[in-house]
């Protein structure tokens, strides 16, 4: 900034997104004819418009043209786990999955969110999308539970409108499931029963070793096997 005399006052006028009123800050002399000022920008992203006015000792003043720049804060979304409670042993209460609810916020927008989980501390992650539930205002997804008792490791990755991605820490969920659901097994057994005793017997052995068949279904399969054996003896 140059003047034939001496510059007495320099100010920067600025506003954001062409909608707010102009704010004013005094600029400081840092080196000979160089003036500087640090304009605080809001979080998120947008555009900054600005122009500079200078006054010399005689009262003459001049101003620059209006310039503008785009900005973003470089911060990704913030992820907060709401459900499940990770501070104690989780009781699945017979469910075959655990619901994960997360509050994901960003000053711009959240355009993508992924839930990654695995059943061992190391290994490949399994990824699936999270959906935003308007009723509760949270992002939701479910993790299948593959045993009565175990541990699930999971984390959430979210991307905002400026394509900045952030990852949560890795959360650890220890769970107990005394009565896992067997609803999905009943139709499977009914269909396989039509195929004959060998197929039913195979299903019986595999599922029994997994410990997922209630006694009532075991009894029904045993009765079916006895009836099938008697019918086979009669036909011989």
Give an overview of the whole structure.
This protein is α+β, with helices and mostly antiparallel strands and 236 residues long. The chain is built from three helices and 17 strands. It has helices spanning 185-194, 197-210, 215-235; strands spanning 7-16, 23-26, 28-31, 34-36, 45-56, 61-63, 67-72, 78-83, 90-91, 97-105, 110-118, 126-129, 131-133, 138-144, 149-160, 165-167, 171-176. The strands form four sheets. Strands 9, 11, 12, 15, 16 and 17 form a six-stranded mixed β-sheet that branches. Strands 1, 2, 5, 6 and 7 form a five-stranded antiparallel β-sheet that branches. A four-stranded antiparallel β-sheet has the order 8-10-14-13, with no helix packed on it. α1 runs antiparallel to α2 and α2 runs antiparallel to α3.
């Amino acid at each position: 900034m140059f003047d034939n005399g001496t510059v007495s006052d320099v100010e920067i006028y600025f506003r954001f997104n062409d909608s707010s009123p102009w704010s004013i800050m005094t600029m400081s002399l840092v080196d000979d004819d160089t003036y500087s000022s640090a304009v605080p920008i809001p979080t998120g992203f947008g555009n900054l418009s600005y122009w500079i006015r200078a006054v010399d000792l005689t009262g003459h003043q001049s101003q620059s043209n209006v310039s503008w720049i785009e900005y973003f804060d470089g911060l990704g979304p913030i992820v907060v786990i709401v459900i499940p409670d990770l501070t104690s042993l989780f009781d699945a209460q017979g469910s075959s999955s655990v619901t994960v609810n997360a509050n994901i916020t960003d000053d711009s927008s959240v355009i993508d969110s992924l839930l990654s989980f695995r059943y061992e501390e190391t290994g490949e992650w399994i990824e699936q999308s999270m959906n935003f539930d308007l009723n509760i205002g949270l992002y939701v997804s479910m993790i299948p539970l593959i045993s009565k008792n175990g541990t699930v490791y999971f984390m959430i990755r979210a991307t905002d409108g400026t394509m900045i991605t952030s990852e949560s820490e890795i959360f650890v969920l220890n769970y107990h499931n005394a009565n896992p659901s067997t609803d999905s097994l009943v139709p499977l057994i009914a269909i396989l029963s039509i195929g004959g005793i060998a197929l039913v017997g195979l299903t019986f052995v595999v599922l029994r070793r997994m410990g997922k068949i209630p006694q009532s279904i075991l009894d029904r399969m045993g009765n079916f096997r006895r009836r099938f054996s008697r019918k086979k003896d009669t036909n011989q």
